[in-house]
Design brief:
4-stranded antiparallel β-sheet; 4-stranded mixed β-sheet; single chain; mainly beta; 8 strands
């Protein structure tokens, strides 16, 4: 997917997590190159994410910490791409997304 955010906005992604071998979400720049994972939290996976009580996951993307679990940093970028993948998934849920002001 493609994203574009202002400094005072947060992109929320919510989805069911299917039964699968592995899943991850990664934030990238405009050319689908990974942001700097050495110093920024730009990815989460089935081991590092905190799931909601109902087994779904909520991912928050913004320039500053919105106080939401599973926050992903934009690393100074205002636009970019993103990838959510399921490996050997039993189903393929469609995530919902929305942008709101911080």
């Amino acid at each position: 997917g493609y994203w574009e955010l202002e400094e005072d906005e947060v992109l929320i992604i919510q989805t069911i997590v299917p039964s699968c071998d592995y899943w991850n979400f990664q934030l990238d720049n405009y050319w689908f190159e990974s942001l700097d994972y050495r110093y920024l939290r730009i990815a989460i996976n089935n081991e590092s994410a905190t799931l909601n009580e109902d087994g779904t996951v909520t991912i928050a993307i913004s320039a500053i910490d919105p106080g939401i679990k599973n926050w992903i940093e934009t690393g100074g970028h205002k636009v970019g791409t993103m990838l959510l993948r399921w490996v050997n998934a039993s189903t393929f849920p469609e995530p919902t997304t929305f942008i709101k002001k911080l």
